[in-house]
Prior knowledge:
By secondary structure, the protein is α/β, with parallel strands linked by helices.
Amino acid sequence: xxxxxxxxxxxxxxxxxxxxxxxxxxxxxxxxxxxxxxxxxxxxxxxxxxxxxxxxxxxxxxxxxxxxxxxxxxxxxxxxxxxxxxxxxxxxxxxxxxxxxxxxxxxxxxxxxxxxxxxxxxxxxxxxxxxxxxxxxxxxxxxxxxxxxxxxxxxxxxxxxxxxxxxxxxxxxxxxxxxxxxxxxxxxxxxxxxxxxxxxxxxxxxxxxxxxxxxxxxxxxxxxxxxxxxxxxxxxxxxxxxxxxxxxxxxxxxxxxxxxxxxx
Length: 264
C-alpha cells in the first residue's frame, strides 16, 4: 500500500517521539538516535508520558485492553503536530488500526483519526515530511537491510531508509535475497508458534549471511532482536543495529544481541 501523503510541515514542527516499549526496555540508544535525527532535521521534540500502543492486545483479540491503551496514547499525543516512532510496526498500529478500534463512537473515532493522520515511521517522516536529503553520519563498512512487514506493507516504508543510508559516509548497502520476506517475529506469533518462527528466521539469517554484509539494519527492533538471536545461536558474526543508530552516527553501543562489556 502506498504511504500516506505528507502535508507541508511548520517551520519547526512540534514532534512527539513515541519511543515504543522495546526501545524503552531493551535498546534506549535507538530512542536517543531518533531524537538526534529529529532535532537535526529542525524539529522541536518532546517525549510525553506514554505506554504500550496496544498492538499485542489488538493482535490477540483483546479489544477492550487495546482500546484502553489506545485512548491513553491518543490523549498523550493529540496536542502535537506529528507523532514519530522508530518502528513501522508501532506506527502502523496507530496509523492503520486506531480508527477501527473506535468505530461507532463519533467522538473517539475523530480523535483517533486525527492522531493516526499525523503518525509516521521515523525514516518516512524524515524523507517524506521534513524532506531530509542526507545525514552527516560516517560509518565504514557494508550493510544489508531487512524490510519489516508492518513498515513495508502498512506504511510503504522501503525507499526512505535506503535514501538516507546512501548518504552515510563510508557505508555500502548490499541487498540480501528476499529482503521483503518476514523474519518470523510477528510479536506474539513468535511465542505462540515457536517452531514456525524459528524456521522462518533461519531462512532470513541465511540470506543475511549470504549477502556478505558485515552489518544488518532494519527499522523495527523486534525483527532485529529475533534475527540477532538466530545469528548468535548459529555463531554468525554479523553486527545487528537499528537503522536510526547508523543514520545518527551513534554506534558506540554494542550491537543488538551482544551484552555490554562486563555484563553477565
